[in-house]
Design a protein that fits this description.
Layout: H1 21-34, E1 35-37, H2 38-47, E2 52-56, H3 60-65, E3 72-73, H4 79-86, E4 92-96, H5 104-114, E5 118-123, H6 125-131, E6 136-138, E7 141-143
Parallel strand pairs: 1-5, 2-3, 2-4, 4-5
Antiparallel strand pairs: 6-7
Length: 161
């Protein structure tokens, strides 16, 4: 019997090496300075934590279809006009739009930043708010759907990640 050399297995993940730990820490810290997740936003709204204002940047039709309780509605095209009248510049603005397939909240965050506001984008947008089973307002009243177990534990208890 002849010995054969073991096959070499290439890693798709490591085809570009991971960053050095200090570089990675700076990157992830920077991301957290720009982003907030749905569960953290909900926790702050529920607790009354000061310092943020949640802004829905979608159209009037989208707002009527569903929105996060306590959000302020300012469509992206009207932010420059309305934000100085409606939002205290000492607050951090948290923007949201439909969901991860939409960059409307990113565009809105850019407008707020250019106006001099501190701003974060809520990852997942309205879609993930609803999918995580949180109540939302509509033109017909408050609604709440069951938790989508691909986004959060069925128990409704936070994943604690």
């Amino acid at each position: 019997m002849s010995a054969t050399a073991p096959a070499t297995i290439d890693s798709a993940v490591l085809s570009v090496p991971a960053a050095e730990p200090a570089v990675a820490a700076a990157h992830f810290e920077a991301r957290l300075a720009f982003e907030a997740d749905v569960s953290d936003v909900r926790a702050d709204l529920a607790s009354g934590a000061p310092g943020i204002v949640l802004v829905d940047t979608r159209s009037a039709a989208a707002w009527d279809q569903g929105r996060i309780p306590g959000a302020l509605h300012i469509p992206t095209g009207r932010i420059a006009e309305l934000a100085p009248q409606l939002i205290d510049p000492a607050l951090t603005v948290v923007t949201y739009c439909w969901g991860p397939g939409c960059n409307g909240a990113t565009r809105a965050a850019l407008v707020f930043a250019r106006l001099g506001y501190r701003v974060k984008e809520m990852l997942g947008g309205f879609e993930y708010w609803v999918r995580e089973g949180f109540a939302h307002d509509t033109a017909n009243g408050t609604e709440q759907r069951p938790v989508d177990d691909l986004t959060a534990p069925r128990s409704g208890i936070a994943c604690a990640c």
